[in-house]
Design goal:
Blueprint lengths: L1 E4 L7 E11 L3 E10 L5 E7 L6 E7 L8 E4 L4 E4 L4 E3 L8 E4 H16 L5 H18 L5 E7 L5 E3 L6 E5 L2 H10 L3
Antiparallel strand pairs: 1-2, 2-3, 3-4, 5-10, 5-12, 6-9, 6-11, 7-8, 7-10
Helix pairs in contact: 1-2
């Protein structure tokens, strides 16, 4: 199936592909991908096979083992790590993916290293270095932190192994409206 024009090359159409996956301890989901037939630009999202209420998941990360908790992040998911000052909000072309908490830390580290190359302010460079140090300590199990993922459409979640404590709560109407009003669709 081909859809509209690509926002990057403005000539190609999108080819749609969908893959059904089984998420351990959760169930069926679909990974949906649109790929430009000309330049290869790709948009991916995850849609859970059942309708979920707008939800937030919380996990206290205390060990290297906790870094293995699976993260299913849809295009509307918001990730926060308060102890590190990290907040990952979706943009206009935000994509869904499946990874683990260690993978999220790697994404934050990569982005921080890239940003450091642009900075001139010593204060901002120091803040980046402090964040990189916290990530390094967290990956080695030496820094405890809270991992939060919130999704106003309910398509994101955390999946832990038996014994890993993950808390779940419904988002309030006010939180949902705030999240959706910031999103540029």
């Amino acid at each position: 199936m081909t859809y509209s024009k690509c926002p990057v090359c403005e000539t190609g159409g999108f080819k749609l592909s969908s893959t059904e996956v089984d998420i351990p301890y959760y169930g069926q989901a679909y990974i949906i991908t649109l790929i430009c037939e000309v330049c290869g630009f790709r948009i991916t999202d995850i849609v859970l096979n059942k309708i979920n209420p707008p939800t937030a998941y919380y996990a206290k990360i205390r060990s290297v083992e906790d870094l293995k908790i699976k993260v299913v992040k849809s295009s509307t998911g918001i990730i926060r790590i308060p102890e590190m000052g990290v907040k990952m909000e979706p943009g206009a072309v935000s994509q869904g993916y499946i990874t683990n908490i260690e993978g999220i830390l790697q994404r934050v580290e990569d982005a921080t290293i890239m940003v450091k190359g642009w900075l001139k302010s010593e204060k901002k460079l120091d803040r980046c270095n402090q964040l990189l140090e916290k990530i390094n300590r967290a990956v080695n199990g030496e820094f405890e932190f809270t991992f939060i993922i919130e999704d106003p459409l309910g398509n994101s979640l955390l999946v832990g192994a038996p014994g890993q404590i993950i808390k779940k709560r419904k988002l309030t109407e006010k939180q949902i409206n705030s999240m959706l009003s910031k999103r540029k669709y």
